[in-house]
């Protein structure tokens, strides 16, 4: 049965880099440590935890970045 999203186990690199286009935050994480802390989490779900961007959580119609990925 095919999976719908990539997980940490699918990452081939020893590190995972993230960039939040809304606020410019960047981070680099050890995949081994992430698996120890979060298990084999889906990358889409883990991104919201790691980025922790207030602009991503914003629902204001005045936020020009709202709705962009």
Layout of secondary structure:
Elements: E1 15-19, E2 26-30, H1 31-38, H2 43-51, H3 54-57
Antiparallel strand pairs: 1-2
Overview of the molecule:
- The chain has 69 residues and is of the alpha+beta class.
- It has a domain at 8-52.
- It is 30% helix and 14% strand.
- The protein has 3 helices and 2 strands.
- The protein has helices at residues 31-38, 43-51, 54-57, and strands at residues 15-19, 26-30.
- 3% of the residues are buried.
- The model has no long low-confidence stretch (mean pLDDT 78).
What is the global morphology? globular
Summing up helix and strand content along with how strands pair, one would put the structural category as alpha+beta
Spatial extent as radius of gyration: 14 Å
Proportion of residues in helical segments: 25-40%
Distance between the termini: 28 Å
- Uncertain segments are none
Beta strand %: 5-15%
Report strand order across the widest sheet. 1-2
Write down the overall mean pLDDT: 78
How large is the count of helical segments?
Answer: 3
Question: Order of helices and strands, N to C?
Answer: EEHHH
Largest sheet: 2 strands, antiparallel
Say how many strands there are: 2
In short:
This protein is of the alpha+beta class and 69 residues long. 30% of the residues lie in helices and 14% in strands.
Structure keywords:
single chain, 69 residues, alpha+beta, two-stranded antiparallel sheet
């Amino acid at each position: 049965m095919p999976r719908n999203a990539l997980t940490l186990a699918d990452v081939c690199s020893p590190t995972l880099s993230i960039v939040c286009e809304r606020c410019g935050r960047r981070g680099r994480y050890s995949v081994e440590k992430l698996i120890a802390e979060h298990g084999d989490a889906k990358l889409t779900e883990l991104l919201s935890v790691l980025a922790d961007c207030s602009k991503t959580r914003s629902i204001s119609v005045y936020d020009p970045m709202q709705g962009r990925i």
